[in-house]
Amino acid sequence: MQLEVHFAVAWAQVVEDPLDGAMERHLKDSKEPSGSIPTISLPEVTVSAQTVPSESTILPTSRQFSSYGPEMNIIEIPRDIRPVSQEEMKTVMALTVNDLASFNPSINPTQATGNIVSEPVIRGLPGTVFRNGMLVGFSSGGNWSPLMNTMAYGSLDIVTSPVSIIFGPQEFAGGYVNELTKQPYFDRFHRNASYTFGMYGDSFWNVDLGGPVRKTKKPLSE
């Protein structure tokens, strides 16, 4: 579609020159009668327009400069991942989700009145907990979900970002934790035992045993 517009504009302006005789000199040079209003004729302007071709996607085709940040697609989610190994959890003697604040400054230690917090508070919001990529229970404001058991984890990932669509978001966009459970041992027999005690009745036993079932050191599925 082509659109052309032609127009001419006459612009009237009353000039008030503070200098004596300025108006008279202007009227004399333009040969216009005394008392008339000077006019200025603008050149002809042509305006052209065309329709924008329809796209098959609703995503923006150009970067928007309304905020600062890296150049990335709108469906990409920026995230910060902090892997925590089993050795690190043993070093700080992590027992609850509040102990994860030692590894990520975005985690806020908190305690609900009359109940133990089952989900970490990440950037001020309860973070969703996954175990091997699967949602762990259902919570309400960080409560009533299965408690964290660091003795059963080989490692865990603390992610500061909205939950990925692969996992499936449940609550808020502060972040989430993915607990990676221990894997079977196929090389040799492993054993470990520990006892932890402290004030306010803290007393924890932990026995970790594992090893190959068959003497060939191969899994039963082979």
From TrEMBL:
Keyword line: Cell outer membrane, Ion transport, Iron, Iron transport, Membrane, Receptor, Signal, Transmembrane, Transmembrane beta strand, Transport
GO molecular function terms attached to this record: siderophore uptake transmembrane transporter activity
Annotated ranges, domain TonB-dependent receptor plug: 75-174
Localization in the cell: Cell outer membrane
Xref: InterPro entries: Plug_dom, Plug_dom_sf, TonB-dep_rcpt-like
Topology of the protein relative to the lipid bilayer: Multi-pass membrane protein
PROSITE patterns named among the record's database cross-references: TONB_DEPENDENT_REC_3
GO cellular component, one term: cell outer membrane
PANTHER family referenced in this protein's UniProt entry, alphabetically: FERRICHROME IRON RECEPTOR-RELATED, FERRICHROME OUTER MEMBRANE TRANSPORTER_PHAGE RECEPTOR
Family the entry assigns: Belongs to the TonB-dependent receptor family.
Record's protein name: Outer membrane receptor protein, mostly Fe transport
